[in-house]
Amino acid sequence: MVVGLRMEEKIRDDFQLPIIDLLSSKSNRSATSKQIVKACEEYGFFKVINHGVPHHIITQMEEEAHKFFSKPLSEKQRAGPANPYGYGCKNIGLKGDMGEVEYLLLQTNPHFITSLLHNSNKYISQDSNNFRCAVIGYVEAVRELACEVLDLIGEGLGGAYPPSSHFTGLIRDVESDCVLRLNHYPPCDDVRIGFGEHTDPQMLTLLRSNGVEGLEISLEEGVWVPVKPHPESAFCVNVGDVLKVMTNERFVSVKHRVVMKSYKARRSMAYFAAPPLDATITCNSHSHNNPNPNPIYRSFTWGEYKKATYSCRLGDVTARLNHFKMPLSPLPLPED
Ligand SMILES: O=C(O)CCC(=O)C(=O)O
Ligand SMILES: [Fe+2]
């Protein structure tokens, strides 16, 4: 029995998802930025290779995640509950969504990590200094990668958008609300939903896994493309709702999920790049390439949108975004 999958779904195993080689941006920046913008418009998803995140930084974080998830459940629970930060098991979010996943959700601000390890009632690691160094090193490196990608996106979008530093400024801000999520999907001998379909609410997600498959993205309703693990240590990049709104829906935020059907455990690490809670998100409809000349959304703060995501089920993406849509202009009354 396939748990939680609809029968009428199509799986496109043969589909080639875009792969961006960031090394090529050194010799031809403009071509790379156009490639990235095209991927954000068509899929809201691409992989990056030659990304420059040092191997030892990745390995150190993966080892700490491995140590944490290998502990007995009762010990892991001492780092919970995820309200929203901390350890969670099967329960995703606050609205009853369930998946075959364990996770550790961390705010990326170094002060938060330090206080979580030393002053809070949540116990994560016996060697909290190693854990702290691994998280801080990893977060710094992936934030740089997120900024590089956002800079290229800004350049590719062209002059009608705010300078590309606008996007990166939101992420580099000391008050930015970026989050790191470590996921662990236990092995299983049937097919199970690890993480139900959703879009990521933030600006951009940088995701990597231990090479065990399971991630799928949706190209259209009911059509899913399995994301094959990449031999060159790629990062997957998801466009989140905030970037979709900021580009007035020129970009799509990618619908994705994890379906587990492996005898091996899947581990993934997702860095969610988000603005400060009080930053205003405004949609830009002035670009000549924008298919939508009028702003689709009213301005709102990231804090307001984050709150809306907490009050909706994981898959209720349309409902939570609709809440921020401009009211439709009333239809003109027929003349007598
Ligand atoms: O584990 C994965 O590959 C995806 C996880 C994910 O979508 C998330 O944490 O938002
Ligand atoms: Fe996600």
From TrEMBL:
One of its GO terms (biological process) is response to molecule of fungal origin. It comes from the Eukaryota. Residues 175-275 form the Fe2OG dioxygenase domain. One of its GO terms (molecular function) is 2-oxoglutarate-dependent dioxygenase activity. Keywords: Iron, Metal-binding, Oxidoreductase. Belongs to the iron/ascorbate-dependent oxidoreductase family. This is Gibberellin 2-beta-dioxygenase 4. It comes from Sesamum indicum (Oriental sesame). The gene is LOC105178859.
